[in-house]
Amino acid sequence: EEAGDDVRILYSQGCDLYKDKVENLAWDQDRISEAVITAENSDVVILCVGLNETLEGEEGDTGNSDASGDKVDLHLPKVQEELIEKVTAVGKPTIVVLMAGSAIDLNYAQDNCNGILLAWYPGARGGRAIADLLFGKESPSGKLPITFYKDLEGMPEFTDYSMKNRTYRYMEKEALYPFGYGLTYSDTCVTEAEVVGEVSAESDIMLKATVKNNGTVDTDEVVQVYIKDLDSPLAVRNYSLCGFKRVSLKAGEEKSVEFTISNKAMNIVDEDGNRYIAGKHFRLFAGVSQPDTRSAELTGHKPAEVEIAL
Asked: CB count, 10 Å around CB of 219?
């Protein structure tokens, strides 16, 4: 119905979730050839891949006891990765729809597919919601609440509680998809930001940002504010998210968004676990992503910056 009466839908299961075959008595990869033929006879390929509760979860989950619920690596099951490679080799425009609840290695899809839609675990109406996005009825506007790493090189062992290279606040290398990243069907950015009123060690920070939809599609956007302590050696390596707001923008529309940044956002944590303001100089970033190089490369925009002194 969504695609229209003149659109023909071809379907292939492609592969099992993680086993080498769908049918027990079949050859390995018994459905991948079928998926390739389906792709060859299609104009656009929507490739659905992902995990379930037997492959990822929390420690103690009855369906996932391996590695105490933690994944061994960031990869999709091998059979799914081979499915992606064989189908994209056909050369048709391919959109990957990923259904999973954690960071996944999407390096191959990033380099070889035309789009990636992260659907998480969408529930009973997930198919309808995904269709609304793929057919343009709605503009996607979600942002990543976790970091999608390029690989696990340099990451501490699971039993090591060090924050080195963990999360966007302490990362030393470039992410594949950074925390806070997400595209829409339009082109939005924060054009300017300013601090309103005086700032002191006892006060909150009042920030006003201007966000504009430069594109031709109505969309939601999530304006994000990050703070960096420029003085204290105890500050996080990079910066910390300290505010965000969802805003709806018509095509070509510009809006002013106001934030009250908590005084606590300027705190550091010392070796004894005490929280207090140690620095005098801070930098605020307001944008549609965090202020890292990779996000700017992916979105085409850098956040606006404001410096404050106590």
From this structure: 22
Query: Cβ contacts of residue 13 below 8 Å, gap of 6+?
Result: 22, 31, 34, 35
**Domain boundary pick from 138, 153, 170:** 138
Reading the block at residue 116, the tokens are: 């990636």
Question: Cα(136)–Cα(123) distance, rounded to whole angstroms?
Answer: 20
For residue 167, what are its two tokens?
């999360």
What does the pLDDT look like over 242-290, one tens digit per residue? 999 999 999 999 999 999 999 999 999 999 999 999 999 999 999 999 9
Regarding whether 208 and 128 lie in a shared domain, the answer is no
Determine if the pTM surpasses 0.85: yes
Supply the CATH number for residue 99's domain: 3.40.50.1700
Same domain, 204 and 286: yes
Q: What's the Cα-to-Cα distance from 308 to each of 247, 284, 291, rounded to whole Å?
A: 25, 8, 17
φ, ψ for residue 87, nearest 5 deg: -70, -45
- Domain containing 305 equals 188-309
Structural domain count, the chain: 2
CATH of the domain at 259: 2.60.40.10
User: 166: which 2 tokens?
Assistant: 């963990």
Kindly report, residue by residue over 100-156, the tens digit of the pLDDT: 999 999 999 999 999 999 999 999 999 999 999 999 999 999 999 999 999 988 888
Buried b (16+ CB within 10 A) or exposed e, 97-136: bbbbbebbbbeebeeebeebbbbeeeeeeeeeebeebbee
Beta bridge pairs of residue 116 = 96
Residues in contact with 9: Cβ distance below 8 Å, sequence separation at least 6, in sequence order: 3
Residues 210, 245: Cα–Cα separation, whole Å:
12
With 0-12 CB in 10 A as exposed, 13-18 as middle and 19+ as buried, what is 178?
A: buried
User: Could you tell me the two tokens for 196?
Assistant: 């309103």
